[in-house]
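Still learning. Any example?
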Amino acid sequence: MDLSEFQSLAADIRGEIGSVVQGQDELIDMLLISLFARGHCLLEGPPGTAKTLLARCLAQVVDLEFGRVQFTPDLMPSDVLGVNLFNFQTNAFHLTKGPVFTDILLADEINRAPPKTQASLLQAMNEREVTIDGTSYPLGGDFFVLATQNPIEQHGTYPLPEAQLDRFLFKILVDFPDRQAEIDILTRNAGLPLDADSGRRELRKVLDRATLRAGHELVDSIRLDGTIITYIVDLLRATRNNGDIQHGASTRAADSLARAVRARAALEGRDYALPDDVQMLFVPALRHRLVLGPSAEIEGRRPDDVLEAIIQRVDAPR
């Protein structure tokens, strides 16, 4: 696969998903970067902004196994990973696999489950394998977690710990579509029966496993110039020496950003990265990895505000 074929593939995926999920083009692009950079993605937004619909559409256009877990306060780790059950006919334990044994896992409303259940995904997201009763089971190199959470409702939710958040490549803030997009959505649905679900229509399979891996190999071939690597490191180190930030980003965050930059360059049809790639991805790759200091929180500053200020302060390579 060359860069032009890769761009054509990405355009087909955007077109198929965009035919159902309207007004969220930037969100679809970020999801594609995450998929080809082999990174997991956390979507945060109010109800009714197509977070779950987007995951379902992605599963339809990508010819991979899809699993969904609706996270609830009573969900147990075994409900996610699986459990060994005793078979009286064979006098042996048999593993009943949980929904984590899939390629694309939708962790819906992940912050509704207690911490011990959230933690059941730590090993899966970091090592792409799970350990059950002392035995490790691989999940495959294509394993991809797409999690959603609602930032509005706090009752009955459990904030994700920093170690869990650090496993996500991006935290994408999902907002409402613009006025024209909402008009288009209602116009389309106005011509359907009242009990119809427009998000249930079949989408064309665009990406199979072999093509996905060819895309991964193409992204692997993108090399970062030393000036881009230095720029990424300088930005990350600036988060550790900032009075507004109590805990800055880790080296894993820097490496994750570098991988995302390579994926974006390929999707833009380039075999090289630009400072613009770093600046565009810096905030979504870092906003969930920071712990703001007390003064910044009292002043009502958001992680995005602090990160944007860092971008303005650190000189970009020319």
